[in-house]
Specification:
The chain is globular. It has 2 domains: 110 residues, Homeodomain-like (Arc Repressor Mutant, subunit A, Orthogonal Bundle); 155 residues, Multidrug-efflux Transporter 1 Regulator Bmrr, Chain A (Alpha-Beta Barrel), CATH 3.20.80.10. α1 packs across α2 and α5 crosses α6. It is an alpha+beta fold. It starts with a helix and ends with a strand. β9 and β10 form a beta hairpin.
């Protein structure tokens, strides 16, 4: 484990200094290796050279800032160590095929290159630790109904199914629906409650559909705007009971919260987690909001 621990120290140093002009000599020193030895061991463990890792992380963070903030392109360029607007634009265009300004205007969704954690295991105590894709997901305008839920009551009484059935009886009056095959579930809860018992967990449950704009809203329905944010994506195949292609032996959220999250090196954000249900194809995409 020595190499993994030392290279992880180097990765942590990089992460803490992404807004600086990082020198390879300084990174190697943190790991405790000479520069040639550091080069030799970094790439096989991480999957790319140290220079490439730094470049990808800076660009990924810059892209996320472009998508979710109103700061100028120049300000973002300087924050991540680019000497000029032009240098940042050239590098960004080579990586993503368009300029930072065009990307911001297009509202394109891009997969992010997230921090690597070498100390998380792909297989821990016989349990596979999945590595979901991380995406900067665009804003969604949803329309539906929401109810306060106690998880213990939900398990006993099937409250979420009742909310869904209630919504289906109201769906006829919805205008401007985006996709007639997709339904959205969203959960708003206190992330600090994640390890509480079922009877103590309370949250607001939303079930509805995506719309292109809000016009006349039927009585009893509510608007819900899912902001542009960072999500880990899990795909559940209902027919085959697989999550991201792996056989699942427990409920999806038990795996995500109890196995994946503690081993991921990531943190939940305060934004809504949500599910996209394709009833025709028996798939559910889980979007887990992370920082």
């Amino acid at each position: 484990m020595g190499y993994y621990i030392n290279i992880q120290k180097a990765i942590d140093y990089i992460e803490n200094n992404l807004d600086e002009n990082i020198r390879i000599e300084d990174i190697a020193k943190v790991a405790g290796y000479s520069v040639p030895h550091f080069y030799r061991v970094f790439a096989p463990l991480v999957g790319c050279s140290v220079k490439e890792y730094v470049r990808k992380r800076k660009l990924s963070n810059a892209m996320y800032d472009l998508a979710t903030s109103t700061r100028s392109v120049t300000e973002i360029a300087f924050e991540y160590g680019y000497g000029s607007h032009e240098a940042f634009t050239r590098t960004f265009k080579l990586a993503y095929g368009e300029s930072p300004s065009s990307f911001r205007k297009s509202q394109a969704e891009q997969y992010l290159f997230e921090r690597i954690n070498l100390l998380s295991s792909n297989n821990k105590n016989g349990r596979v630790i999945l590595k979901p894709e991380i995406i900067c997901k665009g804003e969604k305008l949803l329309l539906g109904i929401e109810r306060k839920i106690n998880q213990g009551d939900n398990i006993k009484l099937g409250l979420l199914s009742k909310v869904k059935n209630e919504f289906m009886e109201m769906i006829g009056g919805i205008e401007n629906r985006v996709n007639t095959e997709l339904y959205y579930s969203a959960y708003d809860y206190n992330v600090k409650d994640i390890n509480k018992g079922n009877n103590e967990i309370k949250y607001t449950y939303f079930y509805g559909v995506e719309v292109s704009e809000y016009n006349d809203i039927s009585k009893g329905m509510v608007k819900k705007v899912i902001p542009k944010a960072k999500y880990a994506i899990f795909n559940y195949d209902i027919t085959n009971n697989t999550l991201n292609g792996e056989i699942l032996n427990r409920p999806v959220y038990d795996y995500i919260d109890g196995v994946w999250l503690p081993n991921s090196g990531l943190e939940l954000s305060e934004l809504s987690d949500y599910e996209v249900v394709n009833q025709n194809e028996n798939f559910i995409d889980y979007y887990i909001s992370i920082k």
